[in-house]
Structure formats: structure tokens, C-alpha cells
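Figure 2 data, in text form.
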Amino acid sequence: MSYGFGLALLGAALAVGLSGVGSAIGIGYAGQASIGAMTEDPENFGRYLILTALPGTQGIYGFVAAFMLIMKINLLGGTPVSLTTNQGFSFLVAGLPIAIAGFASAIHQGKVCTAGVGLTIKRPADSMKAMVLAVFVEFYAVLGLLISIFLISGIKV
């Protein structure tokens, strides 16, 4: 395998790795708040579950981008393509938008969801407002995913 191929794999690894770490941190924040909230308000478990799960979507987005990259270089389909260093570097760069946007937005979405858990304790009827606000943060991970998809799709192999 070539140096270019290694760079492409690094792009896939960063896409899934950083967005996954961000999701784990964001879920950790919201999960801790949800567990504490259930000691006072256990009947709203479903609302807490949604708020806890929301930061996990960025990890899924990173997985999608990494999977697309892996398929593009034919890693799972038999003989991987031969990549130049420039092509490999292009794949590395293509994985960065979702890696960076996914990492940052998952953490901050976790913080918004944590505040949403606090809102749900005091005013359960307003929990959807917290979810809507959390989706605003996620929008930037979606943009990162779209740019990664466009970049991956545009690289000629």
C-alpha cells in the first residue's frame, strides 16, 4: 500500500474518531444530567433519553463519511485502489470537515441538551423547545458532513 493510501485511511479515521469522541463527551454531559434528573422526575425518562441521544448523531455522521471514503478507495471490495500522495492527502482533507464540525458540535450540543434536561425537570411541557435549540447546534455538523461528502465524491481515483 502507498503513502497516499495511508493518508486516505487517516482521513477516514479522523472523521469517525473525532466525531465519535465529541459524541461520547456530549452524551456524557447530557447523560449525567439525565440520571440526576430521574432521581426527582423519573416519569420523563423518554424526554431525557432523547436529549441524551441527540449528541450521538455526530458520531454517526463521521461513520457515514468514513464509510464513503473507505468505499471510494475500495478497501472492502477486493483490491484497494492505488493512490498518489496528492489523492491520499485530498481524502485526508475531505474527512476533516465532519471530523472537526462533528467533534465541536457534539460537545456543545451535549451542553445544550444538559440545560434542556434542567428545563424538563422544571417545565416538562417545554422539553421540545430544548430539543429544537439543540438541533440548531447539530446543523453545523450536518454542514460538515455534506462538505465531506462533496469532497469525497469529487476526488478522482
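Caption note: Residues 34 and 115 are 10 Å apart (CA to CA).
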